[in-house]
Amino acid sequence: MNISYERVSTIRQDERRQELCLDNYKIDKKYIDKATGKNSDRPQLNKLMVESIKGDNIYVESISRLGRNVDDLRKITEYFKEKGITVHFIKEGFNTDGNMYKFLLTILGAVAEMEREIIVERVREGIEKAKKFGTKSGIAIGRPERTIPKDFEKYYKRWKSKEIKATEFAKLIGVSRATLYRYIAVYESNFK
Fold this sequence. Notes:
It is a single chain. This protein is of the alpha/beta class. It has 2 domains: about 1-120, Rossmann fold, CATH 3.40.50; about 150-190. It is built from 8 helices and 5 strands. A 5-stranded mixed sheet has the order 2-1-3-4-5. The radius of gyration is 28 Å and the shape is rod-shaped.
């Protein structure tokens, strides 16, 4: 029997992206978990492990859908291998026939695990920046408030009275014209 296992990380994610990878295979039964990478959160994987039998083929979009770390991946694939079941990783292009899969699983699993850790770290940093700088509609999250250069006001008055042009104004404070106009908008909304 050809079986697919799909996992999406959040309730809002759509599993159809994974199904596109499986279009070339005749799938008889599907198991879909909408949960994080933790084993305890994957009732469909647990059900698949119990219900699958010798000779079955399990198709997974990628190794990151089966497990989030190398140890988890190896434990799950070894379980299926001992039951006489072949696991196929579509994206990576290999399966658990033979012994080469152990090497590929270890290397690719480590890369997937590292990517996951980097994503978590970046999200955490973004949340900290948002907390530190606050978020306001129309302003990019995590960006500090724009500060006006110290000589801005002096040249602003000259520009306003048409003594100098915008191009000269921008050169005098060392910014592009686009940045100058952003400074002008901030200055006029806060200091006038």
